[in-house]
Specification:
single chain, mainly alpha, 5 helices, 60% helix, 0% strand
């Protein structure tokens, strides 16, 4: 058997509307998380932020900047959102899976991480 005889079957991915909805929801959640962190940091000082278990506001600024980059990456790199009007897809999930934990930066970061891991598995 040669390499030319080997057949590799790759299953189809999600239907395009499902994939676009997933990407749009991830983008929306990242943008909302960025806003939550901006609001938190707007009222914080350089001292530790008591409502978050991340030790200092300076570290939160770094995390906040990264979340903005991740949200931008969803817009820029993934074709699903180029196929459809973004306002129709960059919205919160409506299927019962909550990605955003209201007012809880750390919990939302964990939910997003779990969501991304589940998708990549």
């Amino acid at each position: 058997m040669t390499d030319d005889d080997v057949v590799v079957l790759v299953p189809a991915g999600e239907p395009i509307l499902v994939a676009a909805a997933w990407v749009g929801t991830a983008c929306w959640t990242e943008l909302r998380l960025h806003q939550m962190m901006s609001d938190l940091l707007g009222t914080a000082t350089v001292a530790p932020v008591p409502s978050v278990s991340i030790p200092s506001a300076s570290k939160l600024w770094t995390v906040r900047a990264h979340r903005a980059e991740v949200a931008e990456a969803w817009h820029r790199r993934l074709p699903e959102l180029r196929e459809f009007p973004r306002p129709d897809f960059v919205i919160p999930r409506t299927d019962g899976e909550r990605l955003l934990v209201d007012g809880e930066v750390r919990a939302t970061l964990q939910v997003l991480l779990d969501h991304y891991r589940k998708r990549s598995a």
